[in-house]
Amino acid sequence: MEDTMTTSQGGESDMDYSDNEYYDYYNTNDDIDIEQLDPRKIDPEYFEFSCLLEEQVDRLLNETVETLSNNLQIPPSLAKVLLHSNQWNISELTKKFNENSTRTLIAARIEPATPPGSLLLTRYVNCSVCVTVQPLDRFYSLSCAHMFCRDCWSMHFEVQINQGISTGIACMARNCIVLAPEDFVLKHLQRPNMREKYQQFSFQDYVKSHPQLRFCPGPNCSIVVHSKEVKAKRSTCNQCKTVFCFKCGCDYHAPTECQVIKKWLTKCADDSETANYISAHTKDCPKCHICIEKNGGCNHMQCYNCKHDFCWMCLGDWKSHGSEYYECSRYRENPNIAHESVHAQAREALKKYLHYYERWENHSKSLKLEEQTLEKLRSRINQKVMSGLGTWIDWQYLFTAANLLAKCRYTLQYTYPYAYYMDTGSRKELFEYQQAQLEAEIENLSWKIERAETTDRGDLENQMDIAEKRRTTLLKDFLDV
Questions:
Q1: What positions carry a catalytic annotation?
Q2: Residue 355's domain is classified under what CATH number?
Q3: Which of 86, 412, 423, 457 could bond 8 through an S-S bridge, CB–CB 3.0 to 4.6 Å?
Q4: Does residue 133 sit in the same domain as residue 264?
Q5: Could you tell me where the beta strands, DSSP code E, fall in 272-358?
Q6: Could you give the count of Cα atoms lying within 13 Å of 103 in the half-sphere of its Cβ?
Q7: CA atoms of 282 and 361, how far apart (whole Å)
Q8: Residue 259 and residue 146 in one domain
Q9: What's the burial of 463, exposed, middle or buried (CB within 10 Å: 0-12/13-18/19+)?
């Protein structure tokens, strides 16, 4: 997947989508039994990966090093340096070697350095770092032939390692860029704790430079995720259960691309003070104007005073949202804004940003509020079980519904930065239609879960199925990988 936004490329038609056309398009596969289909074909988030321990990662890296070492007939330590510098791409390094573009470099690095002819005539040499005269057999050099005494090499390596440097340790000579291979460094480290620290830092560098490996970002987690496909797909650590994007290592953000979500998060951080006013938890009922606090994740609000049903986001009558189209999520751009003044354009840009940011932030808060709803659900179910109204197993479907709701709302939250950066056109219209459909079904599901006591199980499970189909369809069409 490219790291740039590709939401309005060539080939996009200028056709208009009516509600009926959208409906037919969207419901084509509604009768298909998802469970009977291959997940590789129907699940747009399907991703093959494995969670490895450090020993398994070492084995994987060493096998790659051994392969290159045998292919090019070079020492393993040099093979590791070359692989680390070239993202562990054996085929690319072999190709360069066959084209003679790296043979000179490799030959220079594997040729043992010998002291200049004048030094061969004496048994003692003056070290240019510590300025002491020592026996020649205490001097060592890399392929660059810059010779220093053993103690200076050891001190140089320890200083570099204490600064967090390992694979990037270079020769001590001024302006020399020759890197010290692993075996050379370990030979000059006497203290066991320094050797251990060097190997730990080197391991981290090797993993970070390998495109098919990614450290689990979970706190204090040592798992490394491995996949042969470098894609922005959802990875889940089997140890700490942290979910993240394999490609960038950040929070999972489908359908938004890695570079776009970084740009969005940076913008949100820069404009956080501007958006502070929308972070309030209270709004007035549009009918009786009494102050209402949002204490659940659902945006379908009912005033406790006048029982008026309205949308928390736009304060519109909930009936006007309907099930066919959820207009609240779409931003209506000013078609004549290009002809307006600079100040008017700036105000329009801020208005557009706040529209998307408010919905992004609202779903983030809804996810947190629904965690509280889940706790209330546990308490309510416990009371029912204690009263003899079924067993815990009988009520498990509510927890399944709550988990699915969180999954759908999480995806919906990340559709807003995606839509914000999309160019106007038929593709954006299609995306907004699917986004609106998903949002409507999510709110219906949230409303039913929060009122589970009066909700029929079959009705709730049907709503779960509809919401997940909406989510999957959107990702199939817009998750570019």
A1: 298
A2: 1.20.120.1750
A3: 423
A4: no
A5: 282-284, 291-293, 300-302, 309-311
A6: 5
A7: 14
A8: no
A9: buried
172 and 100 fall within a common domain:
no
> Could you tell me the pLDDT band of residue 453, with boundaries at 50, 70 and 90?
low
Instruction: Give the span between the Cα atoms of 360 and 354, in whole angstroms.
Output: 10
Start-to-end CA distance of the chain, whole Å, equals 4
Distance of alpha carbon 355 from alpha carbon 422, whole angstroms: 14
Residues 40 and 189 in one domain: no
pTM exceeding 0.85: no
Domain that holds residue 439: 19-45+255-277+343-478
Give dist(CA 100, CA 434) in Å, integer. Answer: 54
Q: In this structure, are 170 and 124 located in the same domain?
A: yes
Is 383 in a helix, a strand, or coil?
Answer: helix
Tokens at residue 62, please? 């060493």
Total domains in the chain come to 3
* Domain identity same for 261 and 128: no
Q: Does residue 313 fall inside a structural domain?
A: no
pLDDT in tens, 91-114: 888 888 877 655 545 544 444 445
> Which residues are CB-contacts of 354 (< 8 A; sequence separation ≥ 6)?
274, 275, 278
